[in-house]
Amino acid sequence: FETTNSITISKNSQTLCSETHTHSIQWVSAKKAAETNSEQQSIISPIAASTLHPNEQLVGIEQDSTKHPSSHTRLHRDSSTIRRRFRSTDDTTLTLTSTPVAGTSYVSTPVLLEEENEDVGNDFYVLAKTYFSCREYRRAAHVLGEQTGMKALFLRCYALYLVSVFGPVSCRWCLIVFLKGLMVNVFCARQAGEKRKEEETIELEGPLGKSDAVNKELVSIERDLAAVRKNGSIDPFGLYLYGLVLKAKGNENQARTVLVESVNAYPWNWSAWLELQSLCTTIDTLNSLKLNNHWMKDFFLASTYHELRMHNESLAKYEYLQATFGCSNYIKAQIAKAQYSLREFELVEAIFEELLRIDPYRIDDMDMYSNVLYAKECSSGLSYLAHQVFMTDKYRPESCCIIGNYYSLKGLHEKSVMYFRRALKLDKKYLSAWTLMGHEYVEMKNTPAAVDAYRRAVDINPCDYRAWYGLGQAYEMMGMPYYALHYFKKSVFLQPGDSRLWIAMAHCYETDQLHMLEEAIKCYSRAANCNDREAIALHKLAELHKELGQSQEAAFYYKKDLERMEEEEREGPNMVEALSFLANYYKAQKRYEEAEVYCTRLLDYNGPEKETAKSLLQDIKLAQTGFP
Predict the structure, then answer these.
(1) Which residues pair with 186 in a beta bridge?
(2) Whole-prediction pTM value?
(3) 286: Cβ–Cβ under 8 A, 6 or more apart, which residues?
(4) What pLDDT is recorded for position 167?
């Protein structure tokens, strides 16, 4: 369409439109969309120039004036990134994106400038974009059925694919990709298939139910993309889409190969990196990838290390990146995630407080902050955070999750479940909501519902140790320790550094049905070595050794537990029990001076233990004088 002072419909448009008034209105809408696109081209072009990480990891890169003189450098900035581009005087078709200075030699990747593509001004293409924006993916794919341009191919196939799986949020990101991308025809086909798959899921099981519905468009999309790849005319975005299709069909090895080709050719498509990450389930698989040494690879490795539960390695990588991207809120949030996995809650809280000072309307990752506030039982802080996100955007899954955490802390479990279900209606693959909803059902003693919620979480991410742990808790409540033990073992395998999981497994071994005390002792020992914050393991180890008649080991752990309670200035029945045992133990060992010390401390307590201490002191004095 041409943009003129008086908006008219082209002859090509009149040929394509039906004679009905309704179709004419659609073409006018398409034309207006085209005008808007034309007016905003100067804004879209810098965004389209690099499909970077959707969070702010590129903020604050300082320009090296010695390498890129100002006369050849332009800074392009949007809400999340600052990018440096310079045009070669010899070749006007390429743009070289400069490499951040971080002490490592990275490849500098050529990026094709936006070419004058015949698809862009094509009436079919503009109409398909309008249909796509309205989420009418099959109509978009149908309009582009006979178009052969690269953008038309990408949009058609991707629309057919996305007809089902992705929700509105993902579709907005996909729209950015397709505006930037070079294969539009495939885009529509994918969109349509995924939308129909979602409809079948809802028809069969409801909006939160499970279903075996599949995307019926995958075969045709794979055939089209395989042919384009074979003749060598596929671009990085086509490869990304091809990798999605292969992954959906279960061909993970080939999907990895194709996605590696995509990110090597165009490293700034973070969506491709994330899909590749989901296919790296072991460190060996990750190390086998033949990736170019680009700085986006560092972001990928840091994120993948976190998913592989290599939290220290992930934290080190993010801290290394922070030296270059010092102002990046994304990196700060990822560091907080790594610290959260290491259970450094004080550090996590400090980072999120800083993020909220910088960006008070931030919602991304704030659900994790709410988990920290919940664990610390900080009701006022959680209340404030819930109010903030509610006023900012109450229809974000993260907002619903935060509000659900607030009501859970208040003991209103039914209302908490309501908000977790609302989060899942917005995004049914929102892992945290399934897990936290399972926790609420456990609190409500609704174990069948809890088991279902935890199983849905495991289906989404089999590496979520919290869901496995929740399943173990649910089966333990139902008096099925063998099942509980099976799930606790899975959770411990995924998170061996969490003392709570070892303690839960030890409880199973202690039950009357199992009564495997030696195994329980091993679990409590592991928990004690994993920074047992709740101070449960030492006391349980002392009790079990006492029950097994192993007095020396029991005394060792009672003494260690007593020292910890003194450091933390805790009083209670555990301290009385430890003092009583140690007094009797040292008396039996004829170490009267030590026994007298513990007896004297027992005299400070009121109750039967005081009388017991007096009796022990008398016996000790008689033994010291040599009288029987």
Answers:
(1) 154
(2) 0.69
(3) 280, 301, 304, 308
(4) 40
d(CA 520, CA 515): 9
Pair 596, 617: CB distance under 8 Å? yes
Residue 338 C-beta-side C-alpha neighbours within 13 Å: 22
Task: Please report, for residues 159, 241, 254, 271, the alpha-carbon distance to residue 217 in angstroms, rounded to integers and kept in the order given.
Answer: 10, 13, 19, 21
Q: Are 217 and 185 in contact (CB under 8 A)?
A: no
Q: Which residues of 537-560 are buried (b: 16+ CB within 10 A; e: fewer)?
A: bbbbbbbbbbeeeeeebbbebbbb
Contacts of 200 (CB under 8 A, 6+ apart): 164, 211, 213
Cβ atoms of 218 and 245 closer than 8 Å: yes
- Containing 623, the helix (H) or strand (E) segment is helix 608-625
| pLDDT per position as a tens digit, 579-595 | 999 988 998 888 888 88
Look up residue 406 and give its two tokens. Answer: 């607030």
- Write out the two tokens for 142: 């149908």
Interhelix angle 236-248/168-180, rounded to 10 degrees, is 140
CB 460 within 8 A of CB 431: yes
- Give the rounded distance of the alpha carbon of 302 from its chain centre: 13
**Could you tell me where the DSSP H helices lie in 568-607?**
573-588, 592-602
Phi and psi at residue 578, in whole multiples of 5°? -65, -45
Q: Are strands 94-97 and 82-87 parallel, antiparallel or unpaired?
A: antiparallel
Indicate the burial class of 606 (C-beta count within 10 angstroms; 0-12, 13-18, 19 or more): exposed
496-542: per-residue pLDDT in tens?
888 999 999 999 999 989 999 999 999 999 999 988 888 899 999 99
Indicate the helix (H) or strand (E) that contains 288: none
Q: What is the amino acid identity at position 314? A: S
Secondary structure of 150-197 in HEC code, one letter for each residue = HHHHHHHHHHHHCCCCCCHHHHHHHHHHHHHCCCCEHHHHHHHHHHHH
d(CA 348, CA 333): 9
62: DSSP letter? P
Per-residue pLDDT averaged across 220-227, rounded? Answer: 87
Distance of CA 183 to the CA centre of its chain: 29
**Nearest 5 degrees, angle CA 377-CA 308-CA 459?**
75
